């Protein structure tokens, strides 16, 4: 089964996090991804039912996950259960673990991984064209990447979740910057795993290096 990977990319936070997913996760998955302007409701509706894993990066709140330009993708009570039934779902977005995550489980998702508060990290705006090179952002985002790669290696959701938590703990112990350390501890404290921790997906091939990453397009903000 293919994966559904929805990656918003329209402001600095989404550019930063999606950049790490483009570098470390996208090359391991099937070549159809909902990136940038494709990270919207209709493309998600069409691709999600055929997937075994859903990975989303975008903004959100307790009840909803959004894609490009904050277009709604998943909202409590407003999606077809076929989109999530039997799937492992990871949402790198704020607060989705409060209400949306439990709702996904009630509607048949095998498990959900997300956060009950805002996901916070420090990133370098000067590296917006090469976000995966941002060492400050990597301190927080690489634990997420390591957990996702564990899932794609065939580990259970619980094992992958523990790898992410351990990454935050290890990086916090080594971090000298108080703000970055506080972000790591905050994200670790708000990370949640709901549903069946023994769930797993079909293993994907390992990351073949070297490969070339095309720079993402410029961030275009609306004129107010």
Describe the structure.
- The strands form two sheets. A six-stranded mixed β-sheet has the order 2-1-3-6-7-8, with helices on both faces. The protein has a two-stranded antiparallel ribbon with strand order 4-5.
- By secondary structure, the protein is α/β, with parallel strands linked by helices.
- Helix content is 34%, strand content 15%.
- Helix 1 (12-24) packs across helix 4 (135-152), helix 4 (135-152) runs antiparallel to helix 5 (157-174) and helix 5 (157-174) packs antiparallel against helix 6 (178-190).
What's the arrangement of secondary structure elements?
Layout: E1 3-7, H1 12-24, E2 34-35, H2 41-47, E3 53-57, E4 64-66, E5 72-75, E6 88-92, H3 100-106, E7 111-115, H4 135-152, H5 157-174, H6 178-190, E8 191-195
Parallel strand pairs: 1-2, 1-3, 3-6, 6-7
Antiparallel strand pairs: 4-5, 7-8
Helix pairs in contact: 1-4, 4-5, 5-6
The main sheet orders its strands as 2-1-3-6-7-8
Give a short account of the largest sheet: 6 strands, mixed
N-to-C series of helices and strands: EHEHEEEEHEHHHE
Fraction of residues in β-strands: 15-25%
